[in-house]
Amino acid sequence: MSDPTGSPRDATGPAVTEHRIVVPASVPMVGLLGARDEFLRVVEEAFPGTSIHVRGNEITVTGEPAEVALVERLVDELVVVLRTGQPLSVEAIDRSIGMLRSSGFAATPADVLTFNILSSRGRTIRPKTLNQKRYVDAIDRHTIVFGIGPAGTGKTYLAVAKAVQALQSKAVTRIILTRPALEAGERLGFLPGTLYEKIDPYLRPLYDALHDMMDPDSIPRLMAAGTIEVAPLAYMRGRTLNDAFIILDEAQNTTPEQMKMFLTRLGFSSKMVVTGDVTQTDLPGGASSGLNEAQEVLAGVDDVSFLRLTSKDVVRHRLVSAIVDAYGRHDSARAVEGPPGRRGGRRPPQRR
After folding, report:
1. How far is CA 113 from CA 229, 278, 308, 318, in A?
2. What distance lies between CA 260 and its chain's CA centroid?
3. pLDDT 10s digits, 100-124
4. 3-class state of residue 273 by DSSP
5. pLDDT tens for residues 305-333?
């Protein structure tokens, strides 16, 4: 039986279509399918309602029209990536499928996977999700950008990469990296060591990102010359920062007053990126977060952009997702059973 468009249909099931994809001869099938067809298996698992058969450089896909169209679009995007000379990976295919699933034909995974921000020390830094690409594009287009999202979404790492790129291209003359040293509070004077030894643990993530992107031997020289500055947020007060790429990290731990102070340090020919996770505020006494207030105060202000990343933009080892899911199931089961002291129906004796 066929529907009016000619797609075969059984008496009760949905329409089924078959499409043949011809892969260009210039693209090696092993690069597209993976060693021992590992990439093909990823696609088959992601589209369980389709049947995929490969013969030579032809791929035949059978299934529901919408799913077949997504598989065809996926293959087209992966072919574009391979034509740039960039190899594929299981993670790249997983992310491409996620982009197409969430955004359909509006997504262009090839543009994301082949967009190079910075090449350094034998590696290339590029966005890995559609939102990360939008984040990087926003930094190019706007003077002040807020990157808001959970840990692991690359918001700080990509911002540092853009800062290094701007310095290398001479778009700015210096990089300033700052974050609130909230854990130390007003107790820095009681910590052992010099000032830099005291604040180093709170700024270490920014140093680590720099070391990934620059020659480690050059960083002390650039810091001594003032070309790169890594300092607590309190050190920004009273300054005007011209010709600089300025990053405020962990901005959820700023007070509204600190956020206003920081944003008004903006000078001529400078760019600011503010990153933070509004769900991880550590301010004492229930104080309001400057990052939360900034979203309300600056909404609609010209040349200020807010880019929100989600858990779908977390880029980590694939096993991490399995670990998180396993702990989620464990916590759910424990919540159903009740607190440990109430299992088995007997309440443990209380200490007095």
Report:
1. 31, 28, 20, 18
2. 26
3. 988 767 778 999 999 999 887 778 8
4. strand
5. 999 998 888 876 666 556 756 776 787 78
